[in-house]
Write a structure and sequence with these properties.
The chain is an alpha/beta fold. The protein contains 6 helices and 5 strands; from the N terminus they run αβαβαβαββαα.
């Protein structure tokens, strides 16, 4: 049975860890709110891009443009979005599991796979895989993401698709549904696809200059940017949400462990007191 000194040392250690996990929980909650606000703010931009593309699609054949051309998939580029750090529950494990499922499917269909890794955890995993070419690694993605942060990723993906180095570009990320539900999924990026949106009267009456083709190309690039941007925002929100939940569980477990150790220490102390009283009583009896 451990001594009271050992138990006190363990209690101090657990309390110290509890303070750390509680602080990390509060930080993750604060970052989660900011990520949710950024995600909601970007939705209007994506809707405007879809509205414009819907109208342009009615005025021209979008399938003729390079961004929309579908080819037989012999080589695929995957943009894998994970985190740089752990302590986020099953966040990275779920994304990597989805990544492995796509790799297995591509292997069955004899499709070569290239990957751009966003996040250190995904890069470390992909680097150990045979038959997977890592063509880019981007780490230290900030919580407040700007165009300068993700545009190099998009440029690399678009160039490889236009040059027919790859025939398809997909994003593997985590969709943020709410604070309790996050789902790892695969999103198609290229060839470009979009859901048709309701077109306002102003857009219907608009004149496109210098030409429909030029505006279509620009709008498509903006749509691709918004899709990648939204995927990164969802990934950040999911990471913070799962880290907050993981740190809350760790804090709760630390609280229970402190209570259990305190109870055990009190039992040890009570046993020591009882033993001393018994020895004193035995000594008194022996002196009679």
């Amino acid at each position: 049975m451990p001594s009271t000194r050992q138990l006190k040392s363990r209690i101090r250690s657990v309390k110290s860890n509890k303070q750390i996990t509680k602080a990390m929980e509060l930080v993750a909650a604060s970052k989660l709110r900011k990520s949710q606000d950024a995600s909601r703010a970007s939705q209007a931009y994506a809707l405007a891009a879809r509205e414009l593309l819907t109208q342009l699609g009615r005025l021209s054949d979008v399938q003729q443009f390079a961004f929309f051309k579908k080819r037989e998939v012999k080589s695929r580029l995957i943009i894998l979005i994970t985190s740089d750090r752990g302590l986020a529950g099953a966040y990275n494990a779920n994304v990597i599991k989805q990544f492995v499922a796509v790799l297995n499917e591509d292997e069955k269909n004899h499709i070569k796979t290239q990957v751009i890794c966003v996040g250190r955890r995904g890069a470390q995993f992909a680097a150990r895989l045979a038959g997977v070419e890592v063509v880019g690694v981007y780490t230290a993605m900030p919580d407040v993401i700007t165009a300068n942060d993700f545009r190099p990723i998009l440029v690399e993906a678009v160039d490889r698709f236009i040059d027919e180095v790859v025939d398809s570009v997909d994003i593997i990320t985590t969709r943020f549904l709410n604070s309790f539900t996050q789902v790892a999924e695969t999103l198609p990026l290229l060839p470009a696809v979009f859901e048709e949106a309701e077109v306002s009267k102003d857009v219907q009456l608009a004149r496109f200059e210098p030409s429909i083709e030029v505006v279509l190309e620009g709008a498509t690039v903006r749509l691709l940017e918004s899709q990648l941007y939204q995927a990164l925002l969802d990934a950040k929100a999911s990471e913070h949400s799962m880290r907050r939940a993981a740190m809350k569980n760790a804090t709760d477990n630390a609280t229970e462990l402190v209570d259990d150790l305190t109870l055990e220490m009190n039992k040890v102390r009570q046993a020591a007191i009882t033993q001393e009283l018994s020895e004193i009583s035995a000594g008194v009896e022996a002196m009679k």
